[in-house]
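Hey, resending since the last one bounced:
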Amino acid sequence: LTWDNSTQLYLLTDAQHTALQKQNPNITFTLGNLTSSTNIEIVLPYAAFDLTVSTPIVANATRYFPLKRANDSSQYTLGRTFFQEACVSTFSIQTFKFLQPFRLTLSAGT
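The structure tokens again:
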């Protein structure tokens, strides 16, 4: 990925996008809490991160990878793509539960 200072985004060329589609990689987030040794892995496919930016940020529609740089090494932020794809359940204002999303895959004729 290449950081573009003017847009503050990681822009992708068509060649990079095609290669990533062919590889079909997964991005795994491992989440836990401070009071338990239990972790959960949320696995998202590349397609979840296949986004396009357009005007007024760029003149022509351009693919980008939705990853932001942290201000320092202590900053960790989950963004819109994660929350749109992960299954998040709220028990109270201060308690959240993350679940691996269920993905239904249909083949032709079903």
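The chain has a mean pLDDT of 81.

Sorry for the duplicate.
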